Amino acid sequence: MSLNSLIITTLKPLGVPVDFQTYSGNESTYITFFEYNQRGALHAEDEEKRTAHSIQVDICSTGDYTNLAKQVKDKLISIGFIRIMETEFYEPDIKLYQKVLRFNYVQ
Q1: DSSP conformation class of 45
Q2: pTM > 0.70
Q3: Of 18, 54, 88, 94, whose CB has the highest number of CB atoms within 10 Å?
């Protein structure tokens, strides 16, 4: 299973749209994600044995996303993702709250 499929399959039960990079639907709450870095995590005998992925998950909503953010963290951590940071902000021009979660994942 690809990493993108793993993320979508893991977050789909939360009941909000989950898309890679962009969302073009009409829901007021949705999740997008992308990989912003990939690097070798373990090398042996001149070969990369494990790959580390840095993933950003964005929760976008016109309302309170607090419970959804906790569920996203819980789901991804349960399958081996490690949370490395999070922040939040409001985009006044489009009236949208955004929660940014970053994780590392090693395959």
Answers
A1: T
A2: yes
A3: 18
